[in-house]
Amino acid sequence: MDIHSRLWRLKLNEARLKHENYPRPHPSIQGKAQLHNMAYSVYKVIPSSHQRHCKRCAKIYAIDDEGLAAVVEECSYHPFRLGGGRAPRHRCCGRGPHGLPCKVASQHISQDVDLEKLVDFVSTRGNPGGSSSVFALDCEMVCTKAGLELAAISVVDTACNVVYETVVLPRHPIIDYLTDYSDLTAADFRGITTRLTDVHTSILGLFGQDTLLVGHGLEHDFLAMKLLHDNVVDTAVLYPHTKGNGFRNSLAYLQERHLPHVSRTISGQLKCRGDAALAMKLALLKC
Ligand SMILES: [Zn+2]
Ligand SMILES: [Zn+2]
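A: This is the predicted complex of the input protein with zinc ion.
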């Protein structure tokens, strides 16, 4: 049996796609997406048109017409969440649950989702690369005046060779590069002219409706990519957390546990390239 057929048995069904909060097509409006399980998401729904939750410190803050904090105040936070175990510590600074935040930023930022603005999504159609293609992908996002936007994408094949990769210039001005997570800085965007619409053209020439897309928590990537696609193998689901539903293993943990000899990131390469390759390897381990 080929890789596509073996992995096909591991793909999420429609109910699971909705449960995992994957963007799904609106029943009547072309290009609009719906999210069916925001309660499960790390993202929150906007509290109102002029308020946002801070992604870092969780405070609700008022925004101006541009999407920026109406009152500029410092944001104190831990860049990484608490670890597990009997004495949980923040991975950033080693402080416990009540330890003072270890980092201060000049303003709040938001990754809230405006459910009414899930528009301009594209859907895979036909099978440009044949009906048995399999790719893994991963994206990086940055915070802009409009929330989270796509900033980089890597797509690899089953041999983990890069078939598409680019840094993407967001539509709105960047207010935070989220370097702790994305590894991206202002230097990565110098000279970049690729936009989301260019990414759409490229990936729709690569992915068809029967393509299997592999990744770790791909619902975030699809949301940032504004992509609607039915056939997904999600390593966050394939390797469930021992605490059950609602908890997730990180890619870093799965790599340490199952692929200790594989290095996740290589200096000078986009972080999403290493993460896409890792997701592919983890999926292939299951078949
Ligand atoms: Zn900390
Ligand atoms: Zn904040």
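Residues 54, 56-57, 59, 75, 77, 108 surround zinc ion (ligand 2) (CB under 6 Å). The longest strand covers residues 134-144.
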